[in-house]
């Protein structure tokens, strides 16, 4: 197991380095940020001055070496927009997104397993059809629209929730609800499909023949076997939740890393972009390792080697 | 990772402790679209920064009257011109900065030097003081002479953009802790979330009715409007027309923006004046008003608003005359101008809420008169590179849908920037126009106004360098709890002392 973990980590470090180099150069392909930072009426001389002072005129490899030299001291540069260390900004924003993602994924996974399993127990039944329809709707409706409509309905019309902003638990209800929908719909579909195929296995027939209760066949015997594809998809969705988080953070005014990332791309704030990608990538790589470990725990036939 | 750990812990803690965002009696809550990224006094030319700290935290020597854009005293009580390039300003006495230091000639020297320091990214310098040197000399503690090189005939007007920060402000380092002389001082800035200002006890002017100002950031104007409707905020000064649905709370106000389509003038067919005239005649401006745009939007004849010095009242918006447009194109075609060559109409995403409708409608109207126009959206930076001088490489035959904002009270910036041969976003070259702009910028009083009017007449009647479309309006949603009247300058400044309780 430890050998597996250290090999896996070495692998991750390699991907991280590759990703990092890619982000560094790809970001700079978008062009010089001075067009965006200076007022539209700034003179050509001021633009040159700005680029010169920040080293944007240096050859790319010089910029990269300078960056590496600072990065080994854990200095990831300063944000152009905020004149603050990029890493501090990312570490301030990251917990917000992490909390949003963790709560949303936990709720989505729990509900999806319940709905998918119940649907699979009687495929084509009324519950299955309604659940299917709702899951599809959830997975295909744009988050943005749901967020705005959610605010109008629950905050403005019924007045039961705040419109936006980050505060106590009530402030998290709408954003989390919006974030849950897409993974919930998708994972519920996967649980259903995986359960249906697992339910036709020999061991289920044997269990039925032995008179084991349906509930225990579903949730004890079959579910564990059907979980592997679910975990794969759930991991993928958890990594992708950063896309949803961008919208939720923008609409509800949550200062998370999704919004930070998009803003840093729009404004060519390279230092922040790099720091945000690095932190997100580390989080995703850690999650992937955990998923691999979970495979082994769920299915003892899988060996770590 | 120690800091990281602390941040995680504090985020989790904040989850458990509910904080109310609802307004209290002494606090006015303003919801604005852009989450600001700095609070430096020398960047108040940026709307997002100016809206929060300009005249609230940091003040200027002079300010513009929103009614007619005339110059009024603020930190300077009066001024006179000493010679061509020198102005004498008399400073308000018994004024202190928030850190206790006195407001005097020395303070002005430092603040001006800091703002004009080339190693600082001061938007005030980049926007209003390009190529201008200011030499500040103390006559006595409360009298200064400012000498401008090259001479600035409207120096008092331009100085309404330069915020005076305390001498303790670092000279060559950006700061997020603005210290000024204003009625409010900065209490707290939570990046990405909010800014809080609190009233100072010893402000030289009238005490503000609200003693605290709380700014929150919401990118979506639907959310901004909903916050005021629900009472979570008192004022949303920048909602879009689609969200201004309640006549009881929503006020429209002329902002200082004008929509323009700039044209690449170096290639055929746009280098032919008949084609450019056809472009102007082929647009039914009234068809946009009350449909895509609000009924309060006005068809425009020039790039500045009527209250700006230099606006030419004799120029009228182009009439809609598709037949004449077609005739002009036919005439050009007969002379060998390739009028059916593709012209790209560039826009940039997220620039205006219903921009794609506008661009489609414009393209369609131009197609109806026989031009071959295609709409294309490009990234903001790419757009700026294409539209700005120097015109590098071979630009496509293109038109650029753009907004121009002039809140300086004077047409000089607009004329130079958009039409002079060396202006950052000008497309054409005309010696006579350059002369009018140059002479106007050196003149004062009526002479200045007259020269600028002539320049606008030259642009509109003789050169037809662009397609001027509309003067825009902004919308504010105001909670009935407060009284607030937006001005044309609201885009850049929201003066908290102007907000009063309704009862």
Task: Give the arrangement of secondary structure elements.
The complex is a heterodimer of chains A (305) and B (503).
Chain A: H1 2-29, H2 34-37, H3 44-53, H4 60-71, H5 86-121, H6 126-140, H7 143-157, H8 170-199, H9 202-209, H10 214-252, H11 257-266, H12 270-298
Helix pairs in contact in A: 1-12, 5-6, 5-8, 5-10, 5-12, 6-8, 7-8, 7-10, 8-10, 9-10, 10-11, 10-12, 11-12
Chain B: H1 2-16, E1 27-32, H2 47-53, E2 59-60, E3 62-64, E4 71-73, E5 76-81, E6 86-91, H3 105-115, H4 123-128, E7 133-140, E8 143-149, H5 155-158, E9 163-164, E10 184-190, E11 194-199, E12 212-217, H6 221-229, E13 235-239, E14 250-263, H7 273-281, E15 298-299, H8 322-334, E16 342-347, H9 355-368, E17 372-377, H10 380-387, E18 398-405, H11 412-419, H12 431-442, H13 445-463, E19 466-478, E20 482-483, E21 500-501
Helix pairs in contact in B: 7-8, 11-12, 12-13
């Amino acid at each position: 197991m430890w050998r597996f973990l250290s090999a896996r980590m070495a692998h991750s470090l390699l991907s991280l380095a590759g990703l990092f180099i890619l982000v560094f150069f790809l970001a700079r392909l978008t062009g010089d940020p001075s067009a965006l930072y200076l007022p539209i009426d700034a003179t050509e001389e001021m633009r040159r001055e700005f680029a010169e002072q920040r080293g944007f005129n240096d050859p790319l490899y010089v910029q990269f070496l300078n960056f590496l030299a600072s990065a080994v001291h854990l200095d990831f540069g300063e944000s152009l927009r905020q004149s603050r260390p990029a890493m501090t900004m990312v570490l301030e924003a990251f917990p917000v997104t992490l909390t949003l993602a963790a709560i949303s994924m936990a709720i989505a996974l729990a509900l999806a397993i319940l709905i998918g399993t119940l649907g699979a127990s009687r495929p084509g039944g009324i519950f299955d059809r309604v659940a299917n329809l709702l899951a599809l709707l959830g997975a295909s409706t744009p988050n943005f629209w749901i967020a705005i409509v959610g605010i109008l309905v629950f905050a403005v019309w019924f007045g039961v929730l705040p419109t936006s902003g980050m505060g106590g638990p009530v402030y998290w209800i709408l954003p989390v609800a919006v974030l849950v929908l897409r993974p919930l719909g998708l994972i519920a579909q996967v649980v259903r499909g995986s359960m249906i195929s697992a339910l036709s296995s020999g061991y289920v027939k044997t269990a039925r023949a032995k008179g084991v209760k349906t509930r225990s066949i579903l949730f004890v015997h079959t579910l564990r076997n059907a979980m592997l594809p679910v975990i794969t998809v759930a991991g993928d969705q958890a990594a992708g939740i950063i896309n949803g988080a961008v919208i939720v953070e923008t609409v509800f005014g949550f200062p998370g890393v999704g919004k930070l990332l998009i803003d840093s791309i729009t404004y060519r704030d390279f230092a922040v972009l790099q720091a945000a990608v690095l932190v997100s990538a580390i989080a995703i790589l850690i999650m992937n390792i955990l998923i691999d470990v979970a495979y082994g725990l769920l299915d003892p036939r899988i060996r770590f080697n | 990772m120690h800091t990281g750990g602390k941040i995680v812990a504090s985020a989790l803690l904040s989850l458990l402790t509910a904080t109310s965002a609802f307004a209290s009696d002494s606090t006015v809550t303003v919801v604005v679209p852009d989450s600001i990224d700095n609070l430096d006094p020398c960047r108040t030319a940026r709307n997002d920064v100016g809206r929060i700290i300009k005249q609230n935290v940091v003040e200027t020597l002079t300010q513009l009257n929103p009614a007619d854009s005339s110059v009024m005293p603020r930190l300077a009580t009066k001024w006179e011109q000493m010679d061509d390039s020198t102005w004498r300003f008399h400073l308000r006495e018994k004024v202190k900065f928030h850190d206790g230091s006195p407001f005097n000639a020395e303070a002005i020297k430092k603040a001006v030097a800091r703002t004009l320091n080339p190693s600082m990214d001061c938007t005030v310098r980049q926007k209003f003081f390009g190529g201008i040197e200011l030499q500040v000399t103390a006559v006595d503690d409360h009298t200064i002479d400012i000498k401008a090189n090259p001479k600035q005939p409207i120096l008092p007007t331009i100085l309404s953009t330069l915020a005076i920060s305390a001498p303790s402000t670092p000279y060559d380092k950006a700061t997020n802790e603005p210290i000024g002389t204003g009625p409010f001082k900065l209490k707290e800035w939570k990046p990405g979330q909010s800014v809080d200002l609190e009233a100072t006890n010893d402000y030289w002017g009238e005490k503000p009715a609200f003693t605290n100002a709380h700014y929150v950031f919401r990118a979506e104007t639907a959310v901004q409007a909903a916050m005021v409707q629900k009472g979570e905020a008192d004022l949303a000064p920048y909602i879009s027309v689609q969200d201004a649905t309640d006549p009881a709370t929503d006020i429209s106000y002329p902002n200082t923006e004008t929509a323009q389509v700039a044209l690449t003038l170096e290639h055929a067919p746009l280098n032919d004046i008949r084609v450019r005239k056809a472009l102007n005649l082929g647009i039914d401006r009234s068809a946009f008003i009350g449909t895509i745009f609000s009924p309060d939007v006005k068809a425009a004849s020039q790039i500045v608003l009527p209250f700006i010095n230099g606006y030419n009242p004799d120029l009228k918006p182009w009439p809609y005359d598709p037949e004449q447009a077609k005739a002009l194109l036919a005439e050009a075609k007969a002379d060998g101008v390739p009028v059916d060559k593709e012209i790209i109409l560039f826009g940039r995403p997220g620039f205006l809420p219903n921009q794609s409708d506008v661009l489609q409608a414009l393209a369609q109207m131009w197609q109806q008169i026989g031009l071959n126009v295609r709409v294309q959206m490009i990234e903001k930076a790419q757009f700026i590179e294409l539209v700005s001088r120097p015109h590098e490489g071979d630009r496509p035959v293109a038109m650029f849908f753009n907004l121009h904002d002039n809140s300086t009270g004077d047409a000089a910036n607009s004329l130079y920037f958009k039409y002079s041969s060396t202006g950052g976003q000008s497309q054409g070259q005309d010696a006579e126009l350059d002369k009018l702009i140059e002479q106007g910028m050196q003149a004062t009083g009526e002479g200045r106004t007259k020269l600028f009017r002539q320049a606008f007449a030259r642009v509109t009647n003789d050169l037809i360098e662009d397609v001027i479309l509309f003067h825009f309006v902004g919308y504010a949603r105001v909670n009935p709890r407060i009284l607030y009247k937006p001005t044309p300058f609201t885009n850049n400044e929201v003066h908290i002392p102007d907000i009063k309780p309704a009862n």
